[in-house]
């Protein structure tokens, strides 16, 4: 008895440490990882996972788990009716289950995807300010069954986790929205100046045409800012599910070339493709990878020089695929390299050269990381730049860098 009490006391001490740890991060990804690790630890289970609940769409999304293949699972919609997690959300109650396979509410898809059967399960709702934000589940108790003590430990952790998740989400949204609003100011200011000038009687026909042309360009920019912003906000919230399918990378590169060819011709830029025969099929979300290649190709054209060229190449290594986009453009200054993937960042020296939002590379990074891959850049001023995208073959996860 005394031993159990000491164990519990140690457990609660550990919870206090964890609470401090959770409160100290506002990065949602890092936070969720820490919560699941802590949940597996305090409940003595093999694995733990988090599902987040979206009040607006009334949907539950699988987010992270300790030892599962995260990119495949992330964003997977788990039905509210017909899943244990859904039951927890609707009833706002914890559950302790000895054999999940025999429970009629059990949603088997997660098990099928991971190939790891769930036996015992302990789930608690994540509630803050009377709102359910998600569900925390501990899976497969290592020794024996989940106890009442485990349930109360996980509930305490859940309460702390819910507050921390809410804070991180608010921070993320306010951060992104305030940056977006800031970015809106410049085009709005130039639109307002342009319309004011158009109304001036002394403007010549030629000047008016020039102003209308500027207005048109600014609205184009606002339009792409809005759609890129939405893309990024969705990707950052972790609600995008990647639909993986097998496809031919060389075909994808030719398709991207076709889409961008007229733009390249306008700038007198040649696009070459280097893809060896017999490249193995690649498994990923084709549309999203196409978005990455198009973004990189568009940059390679925009920041190139007249009569320059772009080489799109694909290669298959033992464990990963590499897609590279190499240009003969202006290059990127050394001090800008570490900021390239930041939201809204544009290199000052080349900002005036082409229209852009500074979100393209942030979107690419989110998509590539969502596939468990990474990106590398090499650049030499006046010579050119190459972006390489490394993606794991067979949908396996690579460690994040
Ligand atoms: N191939 C390249 N060569 C030189 N500079 C580049 C290259 N690719 C990107 N950059 C620099 O990095 C910045 C960020 O690129 P990113 O694709 O994120 O935004 P963008 O191209 O400005 O806008 P968008 O992609 O929304 O049109 C660019 O503004 C440019 O300064
Ligand atoms: Mg771009």
Report on the architecture of this protein.
- The model is unreliable at 395-401 (pLDDT under 50).
- The longest helix has 51 residues, at 148-198.
- The protein has a six-stranded antiparallel sheet, sandwiched between helices. It has a five-stranded mixed sheet with strand order 8-10-11-13-12, with helices on one face.
- Helix 1 packs parallel to helix 6 and helix 2 packs antiparallel against helix 6 (148-198).
- A hairpin with a 3-residue loop joins strand 12 (374-380) and strand 13.
- It folds into two domains: 2-169, 2-Layer Sandwich (Beta-Lactamase); 243-401, 2-Layer Sandwich (Heat Shock Protein 90).
- It is globular, with a radius of gyration of 25 Å.
- The chain is 46% helix and 21% strand.
- With 401 residues, the protein is an alpha+beta fold.
- It has helices spanning 2-23, 28-43, 70-73, 84-91, 109-114, 148-198, 205-236, 249-266, 286-302, 360-370; strands spanning 45-54, 59-65, 77-78, 95-97, 121-128, 131-141, 245-247, 270-274, 282-284, 309-316, 320-327, 374-380, 384-392.
- It binds adenosine-5'-triphosphate (ATP) and magnesium ion.
- Magnesium ion binds at residues 295, 298-299, 356, 360.
Topology of this protein?
Elements: H1 2-23, H2 28-43, E1 45-54, E2 59-65, H3 70-73, E3 77-78, H4 84-91, E4 95-97, H5 109-114, E5 121-128, E6 131-141, H6 148-198, H7 205-236, E7 245-247, H8 249-266, E8 270-274, E9 282-284, H9 286-302, E10 309-316, E11 320-327, H10 360-370, E12 374-380, E13 384-392
Parallel strand pairs: 8-10
Antiparallel strand pairs: 1-2, 1-6, 2-3, 4-5, 5-6, 7-9, 10-11, 11-13, 12-13
The chain binds adenosine-5'-triphosphate (ATP) and magnesium ion.
